[in-house]
Write a structure and sequence with these properties.
Elements: E1 14-19, E2 22-27, E3 35-36, E4 39-40, H1 43-48, H2 60-85, H3 93-123, H4 129-148, H5 157-178, H6 184-206, H7 210-230, H8 245-276, H9 282-303, H10 310-316, H11 320-350, H12 358-383, H13 388-404, H14 409-431
Antiparallel strand pairs: 1-2, 3-4
Helix pairs in contact: 2-3, 2-4, 2-8, 2-11, 3-4, 3-7, 3-8, 3-12, 4-5, 5-6, 6-7, 8-9, 8-10, 8-11, 9-11, 9-14, 10-11, 11-12, 12-13, 12-14, 13-14
């Protein structure tokens, strides 16, 4: 779905569509026909848009949509665990990272589908039947993607690629049809051109050998991400110049923290299921306890102030588009870190006492480090600074990694918990006795 409209946050409901360098203004939230700058908006399309008085909180439909991503993220973690336990791969961290690159492709594809669905429900009213149809159809497509993950780089590659293309092209084509006669149609047509172009390497890669497939799918994802970043420029038609974060930053902020909750929920689901797949003995119970503590600490570190005021920071920013892109990147890093931590927890539950292999240490300590890196970017978005304890935590985790190789995985997991606990406690000490910090985004 294209980056459709932009709105001056907290000031008015007038939206700007910029195509080919010419800006056209229209009332994006009103349900009545409106005329400005010689253009008349469609009342039918305006009824599909979020109204001025509508709450910005995510709806039950969006929470229902997220249920598929609990399953999808579980499949990603399963692939990560396979990456870390595949023969010689577990013995060398660099080899494991190369294997993880294939799983990362699948995660980025799922991330892009989820992100664009969040954009759709930020602009359009989820209570309208056509929008509900789009969300539910995307939900079913996401379920097929999740099912195809386990063999996406082998026998189910065509199912994965064709479903991804069907979601992107089909959804955008649907909006081209239902916003006929409206300014939004041209923006969706721009996006449609890019999605059709990226469909070629997606489908060709599904039919190619593994090495070629990875290369073609990397090109396809680059086209999709770059197209959105540039506003889907098409010769003769121009580009869209407005970020979705300028439309409904508050709504998108809540959608992203809900995704973090989904990822944390996946960690609990995976660790609990892993415990049931073997004997419930003291060491494995301790491994489950450490996994739970890791999840709680990741949750606490995320929601400590910055996680509560992202919407305010976007609204206060002079460039919500740039800040929103940073927030998206921060959440991608954090979710990736949570999934790596979840894979690390499963590895500990599989064998808590034997010597930890380099790749296992990379998952158990690297997941929290990646999470803290994303949380640092997130803090910069909200406060234009990065707290020292987060940087120290990353450095300590990196320094511990070579020391921990060969030690019991249970001890490695305990070290990760200790570092995260130190970061969380430093947050509590800094906040003690002080009033809540207001958003102060970078200018």
């Amino acid at each position: 779905m294209a980056a459709l409209v932009g709105r001056q946050p907290l000031r008015s409901s007038w939206c700007v569509l910029s195509v080919g360098g010419a800006a056209t203004w229209y009332d994006c939230l009103s349900d009545k026909p409106t005329k400005r700058a010689g253009r008349v908006t469609s009342s039918r399309v305006a009824n599909l848009l979020r109204r001025r008085e509508s709450p910005q909180r995510p709806t039950f439909l969006e929470l229902f949509f997220d249920l598929v991503y609990v399953f999808a993220l579980t499949r990603i973690v399963h692939e990560l665990v396979l990456d870390y336990t595949r023969g010689h791969v577990a013995d060398r961290l660099t080899t494991s990272l190369a294997e993880n690159g294939e799983t990362l492709l699948l995660l980025l594809a799922l991330w892009w589908i989820w992100t664009q669905t969040a954009w759709v429900t930020s602009r359009f009213d989820p209570f309208q039947p056509p929008i509900q149809f789009v969300v539910l159809a995307t939900m079913y497509g996401s379920l097929l993607l999740a099912v195809a993950i386990s063999g996406a780089l082998a026998e189910t590659g065509l199912l994965f690629a064709s479903t991804y293309v069907a979601i992107q092209v089909g959804r955008t084509l649907f909006f081209v049809g239902i916003v006929r006669g409206h300014n939004l149609r041209r923006v969706n047509m721009l996006a449609l051109v890019w999605f059709v172009v990226s469909a070629v390497p997606w489908l060709a890669g599904a039919l190619a050998s593994e090495v070629t497939r990875n290369s073609l799918w990397t090109v396809a994802l680059a086209i999709d991400y770059l197209g959105a970043r540039l506003g889907w420029p098409v010769p003769g038609l121009g580009r869209s110049r407005v970020s979705p974060w300028a439309v409904a930053g508050e709504h998108l902020a809540e959608r992203y923290w809900q995704l973090v909750i989904v990822a944390l929920g996946e960690t609990i689901l995976t660790s609990g299921s892993s415990l049931l797949r073997g004997p419930i003995v003291a060491q494995r119970t301790m491994a489950l306890t450490l996994s739970f503590l890791t999840t709680v600490l990741l949750w606490r570190i995320y929601f400590y102030r910055a996680g509560q005021i992202l919407g305010e920071a976007i609204a206060a920013s002079t460039d919500p588009g740039r800040l929103g892109r940073l927030a998206e990147f921060a959440h991608l890093l954090m979710v990736s870190g949570i999934l790596a931590s979840s894979a690390g927890s499963e590895l500990v539950l599989m064998d808590p006492s034997e010597g930890a292999k380099p790749a296992w240490v990379g998952a158990i300590l690297g997941g929290p480090a990646l999470y803290l890196a994303g949380r640092s970017v997130f803090e910069y978005v909200a406060f234009a600074r990065v707290s020292r304890p987060r940087s120290i935590g990353i450095l300590v985790l990196a320094a511990l990694a070579p020391i921990m190789v060969g030690l019991p995985p249970l001890g490695v997991a305990a070290a990760a918990v200790a570092v995260l606990l130190g970061v969380a406690v430093s947050d509590m000490i800094r906040a003690h006795g002080r009033s809540l910090e207001e958003a102060s985004p970078p200018r």
